[in-house]
Amino acid sequence: MQDILSGRFVFTYIDTRGNINKPLHADYLNNKMKSIRKQHKELAHATPHELRHTAKQAGMNLEAISEALTHSDTGTTQIYVNTSNVVPMTVGEFALKSLKQ
């Protein structure tokens, strides 16, 4: 199984030479979000992990979250979200609800 999964990462990028599937450092997203928070003090504290849970708990369907996170399948997303199923909401409904808050 390790051979099959070797070289597959959840968070990747394309480097300046065009090489794909380069792994992000584990702290990259957290540091990026901290940087944004410093520039926009009106934003609430959040982490990538919290955002996944927030989207699911707000009713965003698992497929939409999976697509936004560029996961190859919803099974990966389900591992990270790890919440019970809720009534799904379309992306448009989710965006509208978020704007009203």
UniProtKB/TrEMBL annotation:
<dbReference type="Pfam" id="PF00589">
    <property type="entry name" value="Phage_integrase"/>
</dbReference>
<feature type="domain" description="Tyr recombinase">
    <location>
        <begin position="20"/>
        <end position="83"/>
    </location>
</feature>
<protein>
    <submittedName>
        <fullName>Putative phage-related chromosomal island protein</fullName>
    </submittedName>
</protein>
<keyword id="KW-0233">DNA recombination</keyword>
<dbReference type="InterPro" id="IPR013762">
    <property type="entry name" value="Integrase-like_cat_sf"/>
</dbReference>
<dbReference type="GO" id="GO:0006310">
    <property type="term" value="P:DNA recombination"/>
</dbReference>
<dbReference type="InterPro" id="IPR011010">
    <property type="entry name" value="DNA_brk_join_enz"/>
</dbReference>
<dbReference type="InterPro" id="IPR002104">
    <property type="entry name" value="Integrase_catalytic"/>
</dbReference>
<dbReference type="GO" id="GO:0003677">
    <property type="term" value="F:DNA binding"/>
</dbReference>
<dbReference type="GO" id="GO:0015074">
    <property type="term" value="P:DNA integration"/>
</dbReference>
